[in-house]
Amino acid sequence: MAAALLANVLYSTGFVLEKRALAALPEVDIRHPARLLRLVLGSPLWIGGSLALASGFGAQLAVYRTLPIAAAQGIFVSGLVLLVLLSAWLLGEETSGRERYALGAILLALLMVVLSLREGSDRVSRGAPAPLILTVCLPSLAAGLWLYGAAERRARHRHRMPTTGVEYGVAVGLLYGVSSLAIKGVSSYLTTSDLAGAVIDVLRSPYPYLLLFTGAFGLVMSQAALQRCRASLIVPVCTTVTSLFTAVLGTLAFGEALPHDPVRLTLRLAGTALAVSVLLVMPKHDAAPPSSTVAKELTPP
């Protein structure tokens, strides 16, 4: 529990620091990854944010050693409250009433998932078949890349309304969901008795290569999305998609069974369905700023 809460603080702090650093940089573009990396690596503030995120991944490894996947995701998403507070305080971002209701519904959905857990009765899995993991992860990676590309093409239309970043958040969330499963897989090999053997076993598994792929593409994609959209909206969407992906597919892939008790099963399934429904109805566009012509017409002489 302490490691999960620490991961929440590190993730929220890292995203906000990166967003603040990106606001001071020239516009970045996913089509020029080398330029993007050169810009962000020249910002000490961005480097501090990335170190906080990397530390969050380390805390996540400890969480997956001791908690079931679904329980861990429920605790991780509770960090959205801290993220929204930090975004308002450090970035000056304001959420609309509809978005606040949506975030509240997401927290309620994940509270339902947490309430569906029972200490001692939920088994923590230590591994999954590599072919099954690849069957789950590879289509998800392809879907995330396609969705991000589609959002980029739509955003380049001259007369398109400003996007809130929901599409970007879903796309990056799918990549980070795969990354989360890879972290869970790596955690299953951690041991203090045979460190050399554990390293060899990890390298023989698909997990480190999935982490490298999602780390490289997730870095480039998330930075471009963070610069264009509000962190207070895109990060909650990304986190929710990651958590749902990991809780649902990870539970199945790693063989952590669903609750047998009808009440707990209903809470878990209803919480998952509510979170997905909220994502589908969240606003896709920000209100367009009023033009100078309209402003002049409304100004009294």
Uncertain spans, ≥5 residues at pLDDT below 50?
288-299
Shape: globular
Please count the beta strands (DSSP E, at least 2 residues each).
0
Strand content: under 5%
Structural class: mainly alpha
How does this structure look, described?
By secondary structure, the protein is mainly alpha-helical. The protein has 13 helices and no strands. It has helices spanning 2-23, 33-41, 44-66, 69-77, 80-91, 97-115, 130-155, 166-187, 195-204, 207-228, 231-253, 262-281, 292-298. Helix 1 (2-23) crosses helix 4.
Summed up:
The chain has 301 residues and is mainly α.
Protein topology:
Layout (H helix, E strand, L loop, with lengths): L1 H22 L9 H9 L2 H23 L2 H9 L2 H12 L5 H19 L14 H26 L10 H22 L7 H10 L2 H22 L2 H23 L8 H20 L10 H7 L3
Helix pairs in contact: 1-3, 1-4, 1-5, 3-8, 4-6, 4-11, 5-11, 6-12, 7-8, 8-10, 8-11, 11-12
Could you list some keywords that capture this structure?
13 helices, mainly alpha, globular, disordered C terminus, 301 residues
